[in-house]
Amino acid sequence: MIVNSVSLCYHNKLILAPMVRVGTLPMRLLALDYGADIVYCEELIDLKMLQCKRVVNEVLKTVDFVAPDDRVIFRTCEREQSRVVFQMGTSDAERALAVAKLVENDVAGIDVNMGCPKEYSTKGGMGAALLSDPDKIEKILSTLVKGTRRPVTCKIRILPSLEDTLSLVKRIERTGIAAITVHGRKREERPQHPVSCEVIKAIAETLSIPVIANGGSHEHIQQHLDIEEFRQATAASSVMVARAAMWNPSIFLKEGLRPLEEVMQKYIRYAVQYDNHYTNTKYCLCQMLREQLESPQGRLLHAAQSSQEICDAFGLGAFYEETTQKMDARRAELLAKTAEKVGEPVEDTSGVIKMAVKFDRRAYAPQITPKMCLLEWCRREKLAQPVYETVQRPLDRMFCSVVTVAEQKYQSTLWDKSKKLAEQTAAIVCLRSQGLPEGRLGEESLSLYKRKREALDQDSEGPRTQEPALPRELCKKPFVTLGSGEKRTLEGW
């Protein structure tokens, strides 16, 4: 994904603010749908980004920046490429430039966070901590302006005095940045404190570059028309909206706010389509529900432990199934093309018993898993303990596991998002092929489950001799990365 070198314009724009845990791809796309002109990603720390590898995700048609532990730190797509601004947390000019170089072909602008007052930002000399070090601010911004092809901006808070604030912003302007965002509160102030429109106005009247006003949510901005009133009150070129957009992203819509149910369903669709982690999806939906968290739907959302359960709570179960099936088909298609293109040898899987199964935790008894049932059966039959071999597919970083029991191998033909899930599905294949109980709700022969219940009952009656826990080291599980031949022992269940 290559963005052309045309500079992003910051005049007369509606902008989605950078918000931790909120400004991920689904929210940014939703804000664009409702009329935002520019969208900022959440603040991402320079050190974390410099550990990332840029990966083109052909399944999702995104560009992912992936950490060594396979977590996606930043995900973007072609739809937003000319309007997304990457905000970083940094306290070092050289690191800042390295991050800018890493992402500049996939974003429209680079921003430095100089206003966040939270400890996780300031303790590393980042965020609002920079406001007390103008020399470092100047070095970071000057280095970025000279070293990157994207327009550079920064986001600040106001200082205790107007004189010091104006002195600082003048110095910032001289670095050559394209625009400056001003949150109209001091470092120690919080949302309950009034925003200083007069200070933002004084800055806007002093500088020649665009000034973006921020901090007006709730006090000033409750509907779309309020955005323009806030802009006029601050004499700013543009307005950046944070909490009001988090509560309902349709705040950017000229026609007025859309019903929250409609907005949330649209957000969920983006979250599923772009494989957003369910915990992040759940967090953003909770911010939208706010006082409705105790409603029946709010309680369903609170209980959800997967993207599928979130979809079920909002009547989107069929959409989830359809979308994930399309993704699986796309993965299979790309994998086949990749193997054919590079002449990848096909592994001999003769003798492996296969089934198309998935592990759905909701379908199993509490505290019981297929792996536990399989281990229990092997002990009872005096068989060697199961051995799991897990492979990871480079194309999409999905996992598949083969379990060996009594010299017979078992495998699911469906790939999973984690090693743990892949091992559970392999255990299911073995148990089902032997006609054995696997711990599903409603099964009659659940000796392992009964033993656990008896143990819990004894606990409630008084002290007892505890049954030895299943040793974690008993099952050795080699983990193999396809294509490298490298093996290492997996830990954990």
TrEMBL record:
Biological process according to GO: antiviral innate immune response
GO cellular component: cytosol; endoplasmic reticulum
The enzyme's E.C. designation: 1.3.1.91
UniProt subcellular location: Cytoplasm; Endoplasmic reticulum
Chain intervals for the UniProt region annotation (Disordered): 454-476
GO molecular function terms noted in the UniProt entry: double-stranded RNA binding; flavin adenine dinucleotide binding; FMN binding; NADPH binding; protein kinase inhibitor activity; tRNA binding; tRNA-dihydrouridine20 synthase activity
PROSITE patterns per UniProt: UPF0034
UniProt cross-references to InterPro entries, sorted A to Z: Aldolase_TIM, dsRBD_dom, DUS-like_FMN-bd, DUS2_DSRM, tRNA-DUS-like, tRNA_hU_synthase_CS
Catalytic activity field: 5,6-dihydrouridine(20) in tRNA + NADP(+) = uridine(20) in tRNA + NADPH + H(+)
Alphabetic keyword roster: Cytoplasm, Endoplasmic reticulum, Flavoprotein, FMN, Oxidoreductase, Phosphoprotein, RNA-binding, tRNA processing
Ranges of residues in domain DRBM: 370-435
Cofactor(s) in the UniProt record: FMN
Subunit structure: Interacts with EPRS1. Interacts (via DRBM domain) with PRKRA and EIF2AK2/PKR (via DRBM 1 domain).
Family listed: Belongs to the Dus family. Dus2 subfamily.
Primary role: Catalyzes the NADPH-dependent synthesis of dihydrouridine, a modified base found in the D-loop of most tRNAs. Specifically modifies U20 in cytoplasmic tRNAs. Activity depends on the presence of guanosine at position 19 in the tRNA substrate. Negatively regulates the activation of EIF2AK2/PKR.
The protein's name: tRNA-dihydrouridine(20) synthase [NAD(P)+]-like
Phylogenetic lineage: Eukaryota, Metazoa, Chordata, Craniata, Vertebrata
